[in-house]
Design goal:
Shape: globular
Strand order of the largest sheet: 6-7-9-8-10-11-14-15
Protein name: Cholesterol oxidase
GO molecular function, one term: cholesterol oxidase activity
Number of strands: 40
Cofactor: FAD
Radius of gyration: 37 Å
Pathway: Steroid metabolism; cholesterol degradation
EC number: 1.1.3.6, 5.3.3.1
Helix content: 25-40%
Number of helices: 43
Length: about 1350
Amino acid sequence: MCGVDYRTPYTQYMCYRLLLSGSSGSRYILEGRKIMNPYLFALYAWTESMTMHVTFKKVAKNSSTDQMMILRGELCISTTELLKSLISLEGNRKGKFIRLFLQSLFRTYITQVPRGNHGDFPMSHLYRRPYPDSTLHDIKTGDGFIISCRQWKCGQNPWVPEEERKRNPVLLVNGHSTESYYLPTEPNDLIRTLLEEGHETWLLQTRLHPLNPSNNFTIEDIGRFDIPAAIGKILELHGLSAKIHLVAHCVGGLAIHIALMGGHVTANHLASLSCTNSSMFFKITVSSRVKMCLPLIPISMLILGKNKILPIFKTMKATPRQQLLKSIAQFIPRCERCTCDECEVFSGIFGNTFWHENVSPSMHHWLNKVNLPRLPMAAFPHLRKICNNGFIVDSNGKNSYLTHPERMALPTLYISGGKSLLVTPQTSFLANKYMMLHQPGFRHERVVVEGFGHSDLLIGEESYKKVFPHILSHLRLAEDGRRNGGVSAEGLKCSKEALDWGDDPSYEAGCEGFWTWVSPSVNVWFANHSVFCQGAVLPKAFPHLLFKGITTYGWPTRYWFLHGVIEKIKHMLGLKSSQAMVLNAMGYDESDGKITFEKETNKICFSPPHDHLLPRKIKAFQKLTRKLGGVLFMSRYRSTSVHLLGGCNASSHPSDGVCNPNGQVFDPKFPPSVHPGLYVCDASLIPCSVGVNPCLTIATAAEHVSNHLVQDVLKYRTREGIEFMGKTVEQKPNLIPHRRLDSSMKPTVVIKETMRGYVGGMPCSAYLKMKMNCWNQNGFDERYQVMDESHPLLRGKVGGYVVFRSVEKDKLHVIDGDVDLCGVDYRTPYTQYMCYRLLLSASSGSRYILEGRKIMNPYLSALYAWTESTTMHVTFKKVAKNSSTDQMMILRGELCISTTELLKSLVSLEGNRKGKFICLLLQSLFRTYITQVPRGNLEDFPLFHLYSRPYPDSTLHDLKTGDGVIVSCRQWKCSQNPWVLEEERKLNPVLLVNGYSIESYYLPTEPNDLIRSLLEEGHETWLLQTRLHPLHPSNNFTIEDIGRFDIPAAIGKILELHGPSVKIHLVAHCVGGLAIHIALMGGHVSANHIASLSCTNSSMFFKITVSSRVKMCLPLIPMSMLILGKNKTLPLFETLKATPRQQLLKSIARFMPRYERCPCDECEVFSGIFGNGFWHDNVSPTVHHWLNKVSLPRLPMAAFPHLRKICNNGFIVDSNGKNSYLIHPERMALPTLYISGGRSLLVTPQTSFLANKYMKLHQPGFRHERVVVEGFGHSDLLIGEESYKKVFPHILSHMRLAEDGRRNGGVGGESLKYSKETLDWDDDQYEAAGYGGFGTWVSPSVNVWLFLALIVMLVSFYL
C-alpha cells in the first residue's frame, strides 16, 4: 500500500500482483498500480487513490504454440465500495492500519517529503565501459561564431568488416542544451550503436551547447549557420559526392527543417533524416501551451537582463537575478518532482523532459551533475513563437518555411514518445502526412513508441531495444536505396496514402480532426516554379544578364552556384568569360495566363499560363548539356512568350470575345452593341499562336480594322454627328437616375470580416468583404416573414481573399461568393446557419471552393452562443480541371473570428442601413437562442411521393415464445423478386432485429431500405417484431427476455421451414444487438445455426456518451417507472388518449434538453426520453413523417430498468446486473461485423471497437470487421437517405464473404491474420479523436438542476 521507487521518491505506489486460475486450466497474471503523485498538491488525490492501472497477461503453457496476450486498462473502486471496505475491516490493529495509511497519504500530498534519494544510489558502475576516442573540430560559422563538432571514426571499431565501413556518415544534432547522444555512463547509447553498425558519427555542438553558450541567438541562426557549417566540414573531408544521414532531437529537429526548407542546406547532400519528438511541426501539450501563452518567457528575459545564460550546477556562482529565476523555476508545478536540485530547475523551466523510471540512476547523475553546467536561454523567445504557432517560423514569427516542401526531397523518419509531457505525437503525425503528400517519391515513416516521454526516447535504459532499431532500419533502407541507384519502389506507395489524411490513431484525446490533406498537385505546382528554361530567341548578351546561380537554377547540381558567381565577377571585371550558348525551345501552352490588378497595393500581377511541354523541354536541354559537358542554367521564371497574342479576342458575340470582327469593343451593358469610336487593332485581336512569326498577320488584321474605322468615320461625318451625338445625349440622362435609383432601391451594408484557424491541420486565414442586400426585392420584408426565409439585408455577395500557404503560395482571391447570415434547413427549423460559399482562384490557375457554416443551435439556451456564432466549420475543395486525372482534395477544419476582429467588423460597418442590419441580425439570434421559434416545419414539406413505390408482399407469422408471450415475425420471400436469378435465390435467409421500438428496416416510404436491398441481393428476409414492438407491448419484461425467448422462437421458426441444416444471417440494431448477444453468449441460440452477425451501434459492449451516462446515473428511470405505475406503456401519438400520469411523463420528456429540437411533438417526446436518435439532416421528410405519425403509436418502457443497468456497466448483464455473458466467448464462433456512427449522440464508436477486439482475441479463426461511418448518428445508420450508399454495402459485403466461406467449406485463411492483431489492444482512433464528442457538451450540473426541477414538478403534481 506504500510502494516506493527510488527513481521517483515523491510518488507513492499501491502495488498489486495476482496469479489467477481459470476453470479451463489457464493461468493469468494481473498486475496493478495506483500511482499517487503530488502534482498540484492533492487536486488529483481522490482519482489517483481510487484508480488502479492494470496489466493482464496470460501465462503461456507452451511458449512455442501459445500466443501471448497482454491487455491493459483501469479498475476503479466506487465510493460505496470504499465505504464497505472500511466498514468491513477486520483485525486487532485496524486502527493503526488506518492511521499509517493516512500518514503515508499526508506525506505524499501535503508535506511532500521524498522517500529515498537519487544520490543514495551507488554509482560504482559509472563509466565502466571506455568510450571510443573522438576528434573535436572547431568550426567557424557564416556569422563568425565558433562551434564544435565531435567525430568518431568507424575505422576505430575493429569488428566491423572493411566493406561495411563505406557507409555514409551520420550527423547528430541535440535538442536544447541537454545531451542526448554522447552518454559515457550508458553501454548502449546511440553513438556506440551507430559505430557498431558501421557509420562514422559526428556530433554537432551548436551555440545552444553549454560549451559554446551565446547571449544573442535564435533557433533560426542554428539552421542558417551552424548546421550548414557542420555539413560543409563533413563534405570537405569526404568529398562533395558523400551523403549524410541526419538524426536530430527536439530543437535540433526544428533547426534541421529550417536549414532545409530555408534553402541553407540542399537535400542533395543528405541520405536520410530521422527526428525524435520534432519536425517542421511542433505541437505541444496543453500544460506546455498554457506556459507558453503566459508571459513567463518575457519575464524571464527581463529578469536575466543582458546575461542570458543561467548557471544550473549548485556549485556555480549565480547572480541575484539568476538566483531569482532559479527559485521561480523550482516553484513551477511539474508532473514528477525530483530530489536533485539541478533536475528541479531544468524541469521547472521546460517541464518534465523524461520519465524518471525510464532513465538509469547513473544517467540521471551524469546529466544533472556533469553534463549541463549552464543553460543558454537566448533562443527562448523564438522557441515561444514556434510553440504558439505549432510549426517552424522565422524569428519574426512569419511562416517562411512550410511554403517550400520541394526542398525536402529525402526519406524521413519521425519518432514520437507515446507518453510525452512536452511534445505530442501529433508533431510526427502531421510531419509524416506532409512529407507523404509533397514528396511521394521517397520513403516516409512515423513511429510512436509507447511508454516513453521526451528525451528518454534517446537516453532511456530501454532505448537501444525500442527506439534505436527504428533509426537503424531507416538508415539501412536509405543505404540500400543508394546502392540500388535510388529509392526502392516500396516508397512510392506514399503517394496514395497521403490522400488518406485521417485522424492520428496514436494521438490521445484532444487531437484535432483531420480528414484529408493537400492534393499532390500542390507539389507539382511548386515543381513547376522550380526549374524553367527560356523559350525564346535572345540577344547574344543575354547570358551575362542572368546572374548564374542567383536568378537562375543550375544543372547538374554540383558546382553550378560557384560557377555562376565566378562568371559574374569575370563579367564585371571585363575578363574573358566562358563560352555560352543560348538554347531555345518552341511550343504551345494552355493559354490560361491572367493579368490582375491589386487595388490594395496598386500592383499588376501576372499569372503565367501552364506549359504541359515544359518537362520535355527540360529533358531535351539536359540531354544536350550532358553531351556538351557544360552547365545548364534555367530561368526561375516560366517559359517566355516573345510574340504576345490575344487578350482582346475578336468574336461574333460578346460572350466569346471582347471585340467584334471589325475591332469594335463590345458594350457589356447593352449587348450586342459596341462602344462608339473604341477600336482594337493590334496583336491582341488574334486569339492564339499562328505558328510562325506573326508580323504580317498583325499588319493584315490592323489593315482590316482601319478600313472599317475609316468607313465608320465617313458615315458619322455624312450624318453630321446627329445620330452619334443624339445617342450620346440620350444615354447620359438615363445613366445618372439609374444609379441614383440603384442607391435608393438597393441599399447595401458592407462588412469586413477576418477569420483565422486551421483547415486540414494547416493555418488558414480569410479576409472577407461582404456586401449585403445586393439585389432589389420589393415588399421583401413581409413576404419573407411569412415564408420564414432570411431578410435580404442578411444575404449578399462576398469578395476578398484567403491565405492558405500550404495549398497555394499566393493569395486565393474570391471571384464569386455568397453569404446568408440566417440560413434555414427545413429539417432542423430550430437551428440557424450562417452559410458562406466562396469560389477561389489562385495565380497558378487552380480554382477552389470554400464552403463554411456557423451552426447556431439553441442547445441549453445561449450557453454556446458565442462559440457557435464565431466559429465557422469549413470544407475546402479543389475544382478538378480534368476529372480523369486530377485527384480530389477535400480538407476540413474551422475558422474563428476573434473578439478583436469582431469589434473591428462592427466598427467598420458601412452603408445607409447598417442600423437595421444589426437589428435584424440580433433579432435572428434572439429568435434562435431565447424565444426558440422554429423557422418552417417538417410537416409543411410536401409528402406527395409517400409510398410512391409499392412494397413487396410479406407473410406475418405469430410465434409463441417459451414463456408464453405472442410475438410476430414478418417474412419476405425472395422468389417475389423476379429479376433475381434462380441460383442466387439459394442464399441463406436473413433475420432482422430492431432496436428499442423504433422501426429501422421496414420503411415503406423509402425506395432503398435494407429489406428491399436484401431482397434484390437474393436473400429471403425475416423481420422479428419482439415484445418491444408497439404491436406486442408488454408491461413486464426485460431485454434478457428478448434474448432468451423471442430470438430463439424466431430462429426456430425459420429452421422449421428451411430445415435444421440452414444457417441464418443476423442483423441487429441497438437493443436488438444486445438481445442477440444475450441469446448467443447465454447459450439460448447456437452459433452453429448462424451464418454471420452484423450489428449497428450495438454489441456485447454498450458505451454511451457522457450526457446519456449522466442521465442514466440520475434516478430518472426509477422515477419514470414510479410515475407510470402499473401501465408501463406510453402513448406517443397526439391522437391517442393519455392518462394524467402518462401526460406528466410526456411533459417531463419535452422538458429534457437535447441537441436537436423538432416541431413534431412525437419526435420531441421520443428524443426527450432517449436523446437524439438521429440527425435530422440525414433523414428524409417522408421517413420522419412515417416514423412519428404512422410507425410508433406507443412506447413500451418496462425494459428501461434493465437497459439502465447495461448502460451503467458498459456491457451486457442479466436483469440482476451480474456479468453472466462476457465470460462465455467460446459461444461466439461466427464471423461478425460491428458498425458505428461517427457522429452518434447516444452510443459511442468505442462500442464497436471493444467488440471487434474482443472477437479477434477470442475467436481468431473467423473474419471480424469494424466500420465507423462518418456523418451518421444512431438510427440514421439504417433509416438515412444515404444509408443505401454508405452503410448497406458493408452489411451486404459481410454476408457475401460469409456465403463464400460456406460454399468453400469454411472461413478463408485470410481471417487468420487477426490472431496477431489482437495483441495490439490500443486506444480507439475514433474515440481518441473526439468522436461522440457531442455527448461531452452537457454539463453535469445542468442535469442536476433539471433533476431538482423534476422533483419540484412531481411534488406539486401530487400535492
